[in-house]
Specification:
The chain has no helices and 4 strands. It is mostly beta strands and 68 residues long. The chain has one domain. It holds the Pfam family DUF2196.
Length: 68
């Protein structure tokens, strides 16, 4: 499994991704990652690409979730 984060350019609307919410501590292991479909890609940031999911949650992408 790749630990490399995707770039904003690699993300597309409708892709399923794993994000950490903006107000969460990115280094914390207590936070459960959130899975959802990309609604809007805002751009690259140091914590990972910033996106808004279709559910309305905004956060930083940690990885792309493979289609099952």
């Amino acid at each position: 499994m790749s630990t490399e984060r995707p770039t904003a350019e690699e993300l597309r609307q409708g892709m399923t991704v794993e994000i950490v919410q903006e107000d969460a501590d990115v280094q914390s292991t207590d936070e459960e990652p959130i899975h959802g479909e990309v609604g809007t890609v805002y751009g690259d940031e140091p914590d990972g690409p910033r996106v808004k999911l279709k559910s309305g949650v905004v956060g930083h992408v940690q990885s792309v979730v493979a289609d099952e």
